[in-house]
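The methods section describes the discrete structure representation at length, but only in general terms. An entry of this sort, consisting of the sequence and the corresponding backbone structure tokens, reads as follows.
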Amino acid sequence: MKIVYVNDALAIWGGLERVLVEKVNELAERYDYEMYLLTINQGNHPIPYPLHPKVVYRDLGIQFHKQYQYHGFRRFIKRIELNHLFLRRLREQIDLISPNVIVCARSELSGTIAKAKGEIPFVFESHTSRHAQRFINADFYTVKKFDFYNRSVKFADSVVALTNGDADDWREINPNVCVIPNIVHLYNGSRYCDSSSKSVMFVGRFSTQKDISSLLQIWQIVHLRYPDWALHIYAGFGEEQDELLPKIEQMKVNIFLHEPTPEIFERYLENSVLLLTSRFEPFGLVLPEAMSCGLPVIAFDCPYGPADIITDGKDGFLVKNRDINEFAEKVCLLIENPKLRKLMGQAGIESSKRYDTSLIMPNWKNLFEQLTTK
């Protein structure tokens, strides 16, 4: 079977990028599929995660960012030109490869793929919530723009959501929705987190979605009660970075900043709690990753991922209504109770096994076979 994955780029240390690379690698290795990975705007950026030797990678070189060199009507015309170029080059690749299935995780690309695919089944794989822009109170123009992109998902032969909540939202556009959770690269070592270090951690980006501002408010409360504890933030680039970095440097509340690292499992093992303060999460990849290391987790009960992953009070805590004081109380509760940290960590090891690759990938195989049989 030949599968083509289409994405805008794979240039950052991000959850979507990691999952897509690991998935195409698994399909090539586990099922011996002929896997093709097409990007649109990669340019000279290296892919941060290793590709399987069997995966064929090509960049279409569209470079949509060039439209922003222009203003007003000229930008609009340049956008149309680039869309036509994308359609033509995508059709060329489809004719060359003759794939059995095309998969894309970006709704803004779905309309063009629908025009180019012919009779080939098209799968839209949702890695962001359908109403993501509304969850972060984006401006009117941005909300309407993404609503327009999302409507093109109606042309997909199948929509794959990561959670039941997001699946329900997508069914308003396309009835052919199924739920397949992310594959998670679980920890497979023999030394688990012993929850003895006086440190907690956060992994994410300096983005509105991840809401590091709330994290800082929570930590100010915790630091007043436990000034000997430290917060380690592993954060990638995001639109709030320039605003938040100076603020963090001035706070003087035992916060340590780190760049994203490929050795993230070693960092999980060095800490005692993982915090997630996202405004929305299609899944929340860091949660089962950390849990597989024996790390208890605390997250806001945001739409929709954390509630699917965390069993509240057993392997972590879900905090309702974005209550910063309640979140801080849960952090303090775990700081005060090393036995509870240990028990939750052990429960997390077991519950994270639900996302083992060997359990998730057969769902993808079944979906592809059903689509090609039709």
